[in-house]
Design a protein that fits this description.
132 residues; alpha+beta; 3 helices; 3 strands
């Protein structure tokens, strides 16, 4: 008989509507966003800021450290040369901060941009490789 009454009680509990006031906000739990998720958002933001890259260049990627809801981001870029490196890095910083704050809701305390490689622009019609 206890089995029948406990099943009936559970069924009644499922039929009752849930209310937002049943559990206080502080007791509902928390959302944790992994570092690699923030890194993917930052990498995509850097691609948006840079636009077209040289054909041989690797896409930008990020390494991220999140501590108490605060992100420290290091961006790794490969750029075409000649270009205004400072201006492009500044654009990447601004776009990364804006997108991480908007999409992840996390404060960004630092965005360090590291240019890994520069690709010289080939003159149109120039021969590639060595010539004698």
């Amino acid at each position: 008989m206890t089995t029948v009454s406990s099943v009936a009680g559970a069924a009644d509990a499922l039929r009752r509507p849930l209310t937002a006031t049943a559990v206080p906000p502080g007791d509902r739990g928390a959302t944790r966003i992994a570092d690699r998720v923030v890194a993917k958002v930052a990498g995509q933001a850097a691609r948006e800021a840079l636009g077209e890259l040289p054909a041989a260049a690797e896409p930008p990627y990020a390494t991220v450290l999140v501590h108490h809801g605060n992100a420290r981001i290091r961006m790794h870029l490969e750029l075409g040369y000649p270009c205004d490196i400072g201006e492009r890095c500044g654009r990447v910083r601004a776009q990364v901060v804006e997108r991480v704050v908007a999409l992840v809701g996390m404060e960004v305390s630092e965005v360090a941009v590291q240019v890994e490689r520069l690709y010289p622009a080939q003159a149109h019609g120039a021969a590639q490789g060595r010539t004698r």
